[in-house]
Amino acid sequence: MRMRSAGNTIEALSRRTGVPLRELDRMAEVGLIGSRGRSPSGARLFGEDAVRCIEIVRALQGLGLTDAEIHRLAATNRAAGRPAGPELSAMLRRVRNRTYAQIRELEDLSRRVNDFQRRHHDVLAQLAG
Predict the structure, then answer these.
(1) What span, in angstroms and rounded, lies between the C-alpha atoms of 113 and 106?
(2) How far apart are CA 62 and CA 65, in angstroms?
(3) What is the per-residue pLDDT across 32-56, written as a single tens digit (0 to 9) for each?
(4) What is the dihedral of CA 6, 11, 17, 19, to 10 degrees?
(5) Angle in degrees, 0-180, between the axes of helices 85-119 and 121-128, rounded to the nearest 10
(6) CA–CA distance from 84 to each of 10, 69, 129 (Å)?
(7) R_g of the chain, CA atoms, integer Å
(8) What pLDDT, on a 0 to 100 scale, did the predictor assign at position 34?
């Protein structure tokens, strides 16, 4: 489907990418995707590059990067002579470390729940009827 050269509306981007309007609007508001300006009716217009940008942002979000980290990565990518690869690698290490910390916290919570159930088995059985 070919869009007008003037730009894609946010509705057109939503149809093309399958990303809900509210999420695209949020992405534009926080600067994760840039617009080319506005239509005569005031609607934001996006270039063809916005589709690829949305795909990249969604992929990075799927890997656990925060909006702030994606902003930093984009800034690194735009800076002359600074490839984004090393920064992305460091960010992914931080995501992995955060994930491992969350797993440890959840394992600890699971142990506490199991211990509680073992210690209070009789009372819990009575409450269950």
Answers:
(1) 10
(2) 7
(3) 898 888 888 888 899 888 999 999 9
(4) 140
(5) 80
(6) 27, 12, 60
(7) 23
(8) 86
